[in-house]
Amino acid sequence: YKQYGMEVTSVAPKVVGARPLHEEVEKELKGAKQSSRPYKIISITGVDTSTGVLADLKALCELTRSVSPDTLIVVDAVCSAAGEELRMDEWGIDFVLTGSQKAIGVPPGLCVMICSQQALERIPDKAAIPNYFANLRSWMPIMESYEKRKPSYFATPAVNLVGALRVGLEQLLETPGGMDGYFDAHRRTKDRVHKKLSSAGLQLLTESSQVSSNLLSCIRYPQGKAAGDILPPMKERGWIIAAGLHPACAGEYFRVGHMGYSVTKRPEWIDKLTDDLVEIACSK
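The line above is the sequence of Aminotransferase class V domain-containing protein; the predicted structure tokens follow.
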């Protein structure tokens, strides 16, 4: 946002692994409104990829709509879309931005954006946006032509990925119970994984399982262990484990994903991964 000349206020958690305080968000929204300079946008990260923290998206949307109803709500759903509950119309979300490669279960390469009618109407016709590709007014006529099966943009779309996206979305809807069933499958998987980790004495980076993503677990290295003691042995068994990302504590934890196909079609994969992880991490 700053690169486009916007004034940005960041509300961050006090400690790594916690959620930002909603009271601070409310204070910022109210203060800006009282000063007659209400925020135009509130951007919420659905799941922080670096820490595994899951935002209370519904509560933040309700808070924003109550305090500053004209503020557009933008959700970064790269690490949360499909696997975490998100109800765009019901919660009053204006923009959802995500990628194809996480819980949707499609190869990487697509940026997926969904926007509300209110958001489209708020974009001025002559907005001074210094980037063609970031200007929705440039793209709307093209997308409308595509919907009518008319050529409008002289480039080759990633048709293989678009086709894969359709298949991935159809598979989500085919889950028993529909999207609610898909959300619930990820919740149950997280609970199962965290129960095994806790029983083995392994600790999460997040302050509790309740604020942890259903798609991702960030796990602290046991005392006396480091990345070289866990990641290479797991790779030898066929598992790819990601290192920590947060600059304040990147060397203190690692990250394990549990989402998509492995949750709904091959849950035994996640059970085997967790068993191998416990065995290696807790070995003397």
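Note on the example: Residues 178-281 form a domain with the Aspartate Aminotransferase, domain 1 fold (CATH 3.90.1150.10). The mean pLDDT is 94.
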